[in-house]
């Protein structure tokens, strides 16, 4: 009897050329790009966690929504996050989530998650450049700018 298993196919599809990709030069630049891509119909309803995937020149390969949660939190599965990062051959990421309440202060769970992702990224030589908290009105908090990354 022959044993059969599923074949796993991994692909990344991008239709923009490298010279067309936006370059991230600051936390403000990243926050504006992320906010522009956020669904304004639900940014003040529930938390969503996204990652901005960057190449070695800090050009944006894409933005991926990792999870959507409730009013005060969302569960981030690091295995899914890093599956996307590794699949896209990303060398750096910017983490982002929204606070529907409009509060810019990171919670202790926000800080712990950031450190956990940063530590895991170091194993793969993937840099966590920042973690941004966005509010419904477009304001942001940058972990990197505040020296807590």
Automatic annotation (TrEMBL):
InterPro entries: MPN, RadC_JAB, UPF0758, UPF0758_CS. Keywords: Hydrolase, Metal-binding, Metalloprotease, Protease, Zinc. Residues 23-149 form the MPN domain. Pfam families: RadC. The keyword Mitochondrion does not apply. This is JAB domain-containing protein. It comes from Autumnicola patrickiae.
């Amino acid at each position: 009897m022959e044993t059969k298993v599923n074949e796993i196919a991994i692909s990344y599809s991008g239709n923009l050329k490298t010279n067309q990709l936006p370059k991230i030069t600051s936390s403000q630049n990243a926050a504006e790009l992320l906010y522009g891509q956020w669904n304004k119909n639900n940014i003040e309803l529930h938390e969503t966690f996204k990652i901005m995937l960057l190449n070695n020149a800090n050009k944006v390969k894409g933005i991926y929504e990792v999870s959507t949660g409730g009013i005060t939190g969302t569960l981030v599965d690091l295995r899914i996050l890093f599956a996307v990062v590794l699949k896209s051959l990303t060398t750096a990421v910017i983490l982002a989530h929204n606070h529907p309440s409009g509060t810019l202060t990171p919670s202790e769970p926000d800080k712990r998650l950031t450190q956990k992702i940063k530590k895991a990224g170091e194993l793969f030589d993937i840099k966590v450049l920042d973690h941004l908290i966005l509010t419904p009105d477009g304001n942001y908090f940058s972990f990197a700018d505040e020296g807590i990354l």
